[in-house]
Amino acid sequence: MIELKQISKVYGSGNKKTTALSGLDLTIGKGEIFGIIGHSGAGKSTLIRCINLLERPSTGEVWINGVQMTRLGKKQLQKERRRIGMIFQHFNLLSSATVYDNIAFPLRLSGTPKSRIDEKVKELLALVGLEQHGSKYPAQLSGGQKQRVGIARALASEPDVLLCDEATSALDPQTTDSILKLLLDINKQFNLTIVLITHEMHVIQSICDQVAVIHQGGIVEQGPVANVFLKPQHPITRDFIQRESDQGESLQELTGTASGASQPVKITFLGDKTYESILSQTVRRTGVDFAILQGKISTIKTVPYGQLIVRFEGSDEAVQRTLEELAKQGLDVEVMN
Ligand SMILES: Nc1ncnc2c1ncn2[C@@H]1O[C@H](COP(=O)(O)OP(=O)(O)OP(=O)(O)O)[C@@H](O)[C@H]1O
User: Fold this and answer.
1) Locate the ABC transporter domain: which residues (predicted)?
2) What is the DSSP letter of 69?
3) ipTM passes above 0.95
4) Closest listed residue to residue 322, CA positions, set 291, 292, 294, 281
5) What is the residue with the minimal CA distance to atom 25 of ligand 1?
């Protein structure tokens, strides 16, 4: 488990001071994939680098599996850091070393016997699907392959935690998805805790269990991804979701031009309910009609969800009864303004 308690980070001094993090608390459970999303300058990199103390917080405590990292001396910190792997946006590979040697590097550093290194590197090459590429140099690899080397290197010391600093931001969408799938597989296989920072909601939606939204150095909203994604509370979260779905403008146009006085209603279906005929059965009973203004079906991690924006047509009483019946059957119903 990772616990950050009242973490602040101030860069510089005097009138050149920048407060990157201010009094931030965060708890990340063992085996979770925890995403931290925020705009540029929100404090994401500073936050993730405070977890392994690549950046020392100005105040506050960092606890990992019951060890207070912020209290450790240099030697102990070096030892504890082996339990925390990290991958980077620009991979940070040694360009003059082969793929094999890049992966072997942390093992050699910790004095692992040669025969064990060979065994481990081969195991890791297979894990990340690069068995045929051990003797190549980073310049001979694609971006996705470079990140696979980064992941293998980070896993060499069998860490409990993997920190991902914008690990897919330099990759195209297809490669991004293959790297996210690899991270998900590794999380399942080793029950590895993964903390990732990103500015892309898609990354959060694809693999994270929990999400925290960071803004101006503080967490403004957090929770299970389905809760935050489907019922965002903070304007910054809403903004991320709107950008991702790219639907904000068209909804305004649709609701502005549609005839009739009734308000649009957003209906959210989660899990198996996504594929059930709850809406059609309900309106048949209550006798209202509806027009669909917008709709989408997608998944959050592996859970399907649907979101429909509709305008009901019928008497006020019948529309009200429809909303109540939908809510009773476990759908989330929100009358939009
Ligand atoms: N080494 C530094 N010295 C001074 N200020 C810094 C330093 N690193 C970061 N900052 C400042 O701290 C704030 C948070 O920066 P940080 O890099 O953590 O944000 P971020 O969310 O990761 O942004 P981005 O997505 O653009 O990388 C910013 O105002 C930034 O200018």
Assistant:
1) 2-241
2) G
3) yes
4) 281
5) 40
Range of the domain at 256: 247-335
19 alpha carbon to ligand 1 midpoint, in Å? 9
**Of 203, 235, 267, which closes a domain?**
235
Asked if residue 226 and residue 261 are part of one domain, the reply reads no
Q: How far is the CA of 241 from the centre of ligand 1 (A)?
A: 23
Please say whether the beta carbons of 195 and 34 come within 8 A.
Answer: yes
pTM to 2 decimal places: 0.90
**In this predicted model, what pLDDT tens digit does every residue of 56-88 receive, in sequence order?**
999 999 999 999 999 999 999 999 999 999 999
Q: How many angstroms does the Cα of residue 85 sit away from the middle of ligand 1?
A: 21
The neighbouring-strand residues paired with 37 are 198, 213
Do 251 and 221 fall within a single domain? no
The one-letter amino acid code at 326 reads L
What is the phi/psi pair of residue 298, to 5°? -150, -165
Domain shared by 106 and 12, yes or no: yes
| Interatomic CA distance for residues 257 and 65, integer angstroms | 56
> How many domains are contained in the chain?
2
Residues with a CB atom less than 6 Å from ligand 1: 11-12, 18, 20, 38, 40-46, 199
Residue 191 in domain? yes
Task: Let me know: does 149 contact 110? Beta carbons within 8 Å.
Answer: no
Q: Whose CA is nearest to atom 29 of ligand 1?
A: 41
Q: How confident is the model at residue 48 (pLDDT cuts 50, 70, 90)?
A: very high
3-state secondary structure of 116: helix
Q: Which ligand 1 atom sits closest to the C-alpha of 45?
A: 22
